[in-house]
Amino acid sequence: MRWRQPEDLRTIEQLLDFYRQADEAILGKLTDLDRTAISRLSAESRQLAAAYAGLAPRQLAARCGWPVIEESLTVAAGRLHLLGECSFAPGRQPRLLINRRAIDAVSHHALKLVGDADSAWFSPAALDDLTIAHELHHLLTGHLLTGHLLTGHLLTGQAATTLNEQGAHIFARALTGWPFSPLVLPALLQRRSWPSRRRSGI
Description:
The protein is of the alpha+beta class. The protein has one domain. The chain has helices spanning about 10-20, 25-30, 35-50, 55-65, 100-110, 125-140, 160-175, 185-190, 195-200, and strands at about 70, 85-90, 95-100, 150. It has a four-stranded mixed β-sheet with strand order 1-3-2-4. A hairpin with a 6-residue loop joins strand 2 (about 85-90) and strand 3 (about 95-100). The two termini are about 35 Å apart.
């Protein structure tokens, strides 16, 4: 799967509007996946989320008997933001981990950029839910390597990793009611500042 950069996103409003689109539209514009693959991935992920409608991510994790653990981790000297991971090993209980330090850092950065109308979606609590939901998708779908203690992000093959990650994004968005694709988070982090149409007159 090859990725493309979105074009003509010059303000924070344009960035948010782009990632507010349906997942199918975003993946169609940013990747070389064919429409059939995108539609199938989206339908499967949303169908799984619909099966657990009404449950908050922490409630779903508790119902499954999977503990959610908070730790503060630093990855690559703080240059990378690992929001969470899930782990599984034969004979051991699956677990989900959320990285308090990374989530708080991403939230702090995002809240400096987005307007008041969208700020609640980028609070630490909202990003906690989004992260937990993402990792739940990996556990619920079994997209983990077995036989070793590995994280949900270490999957077989680059293409499978990317597809599984996008499925987890779509599931997390549907389960939490987040108005944006989670792909907005790395987009926000790519720049320290985004001009605002209101400030710049663009």
